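During the second year of the project, the team shifted from modelling isolated chains to modelling whole assemblies. The rationale, set out in the original proposal, was that interfaces cannot be judged from single-chain predictions alone. As a representative example for this report, we include one of the complexes processed in the last quarter. Its constituent sequences, exactly as entered into the pipeline, are reproduced here:
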Amino acid sequence: MAKSLNSEGKIAAIPSVRNEYTGQIWTIEDVRREVEKVRRLLTQEGYKPGLVRSIAFNPRLTKSCGRTHRFRATFEMDFSVNYFKKSGADSIWDTIAHEVIHTVPGCFNHGDGFKAAARCLEKHGYHVGRLCRDEEYAKYITQKKAFGTTYHVVCEDCGWDGTRRKKLSKILKGIMQEGQRRYSCPVCGSHKLSVYRVDFPGLETQLKSIKL
Ligand SMILES: [Zn+2]
Ligand SMILES: [Zn+2]
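Output from the structure prediction step:
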């Protein structure tokens, strides 16, 4: 019996992934829609993208963002759950486009054919890297492991900067609630506190406030 890589069971197990930073929920249908959009654009550009017979979120895919397998005449795509959780929206669109390019004949590796197709998608707003997003993500994971993500609170009024924490604790989540009055700055008493995530030295992201 032929081994199916994206079993329907796997698809049913993880029907959607919520991005931690934007709050956007990606369903398999959303990914499918993006895949078909990129296939249409590539067809317009004279390419012949292959048929994608199944798409799944794969929780075991941790070292890469996405993978495309050839299955006879069609393709199967796996996307990393963790990547969809942790990555920026733009990079997710580019990753999906990256995987769709792999279905074009002569584009299964990252050679000249792949690069030419990636360039064609630029005018449609995609920035499919010369490097595989897989590799970038792997690099990100390695650096993240070495450094470790931390969180800290900053007072938007006086600039007070709290202790670095390893986890997004209950208190930090409480501080992130929109219009919260429970926590105040120890210096000026203001409730205008923000939580920042630090991934690498010099790379800080203000976490969106949570609506109550
Ligand atoms: Zn690739
Ligand atoms: Zn303050």
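Residues 98, 102, 110, 132, 134 surround zinc ion (ligand 1) (CB under 6 Å). Residues 66 and 79 are 4 Å apart (CA to CA).
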